Amino acid sequence: MSQTQKDTSVQRKPKVESYDIAKSDETLHLAVDLAKFIKENKLYQNIQGKEYVNVEGWQYAGSRLGILPVVEHVVNISTDDEIKYQAKVNLLDLRSQQVVGAGFAICSNREQGKKYYQEFAIASMAQTRAIGKAYRNILAWIIRAAGYEPTPVEEMDYAGNESAKVAVPTEKKATMKAAPATAATTEPAEAEKTPGVRYASAKQKEEIIRLLNNPVITRQEKTKMLLNINRLDEERAAQAIEKLKKVIEDREDGQSAAA
């Protein structure tokens, strides 16, 4: 073997598998790959006991499907006392060269924690949020199937600011009337119960996704299960796995008998 041939063989890289969003079986395989990639690279954040994926994780999912973000515009809508930018991002399917999705987003220095942000940072965050929003519009179910919440972290950051604003008048009402005060004291007790729930493990979710990928499972059954997979606790997940196994066994036996 010549030196040139040796160099070529060394430089040759393994082909990265790509997926087709139009084929549900392939996207379910992507969900398993995505769950592993996000976990290994820590591309998620835990917010109030739930895991939300960073925009980098959404971009990875899109790239495996051949769908890339293209910034259409970033508009300065600032006023004299506020730095504010709006961004729009389109999603381009590299196979068809067609736009398959879009997302709008806004970022302002009036948001909590962004008072001292420079203008370029506000504009950049608007773009980042728009990218996450665009991917969410078409890939939310895949992220959920991977075991994560179908909302980008950057969007939750904005939602958190809104909830913080709403909390102020609630406290005022509680000091004026006895009834709201009583209700407020019962809420923490209920909230404490939620963290105690043992939700389905990543291994259980992977097993459910693997079983859903069986040809005898209908698309409607897949969709229904995937939409609720993050709500399952360990016991219900175990029951779902056993039920899926039985359904698959019964249907495969029925097909064999018919043949």
Structural class: alpha+beta
Spans of at least 5 consecutive residues with low confidence: 158-194
User: What is the first-to-last residue Cα distance?
Assistant: 53 Å
| Largest sheet composition | 3 strands, antiparallel
Helix content: 55-70%
Number of extended strands: 5
- What is the count of structural domains? 2
Proportion of residues in β-strands:
15-25%
Please state the overall shape, judged from the principal axes of the Cα atoms: elongated
Mean pLDDT: 76
Strand order of the largest sheet: 3-4-5
Order of helices and strands: HHEEHEEEHHHHHH
Number of helices: 9
The Cα radius of gyration reads: 23 Å
Biased composition (Low complexity): 177-188
Region (Disordered): 177-197
Explain this structure:
The strands form two sheets. The chain has a three-stranded antiparallel sheet with strand order 3-4-5. The chain is 58% helix and 15% strand. It folds into two domains: 17-194; 197-259. With 259 residues, the protein is an alpha+beta fold. The protein has helices at 3-11, 24-40, 55-64, 119-145, 153-176, 178-193, 202-212, 219-228, 234-258, and strands spanning 44-47, 50-53, 67-76, 84-93, 98-108. Residues 177-188 have a biased composition (Low complexity). Residues 177-197 are annotated as: Disordered.
Brief characterization of the structure:
With 259 residues, the protein is an alpha+beta fold. The chain is 58% helix and 15% strand.
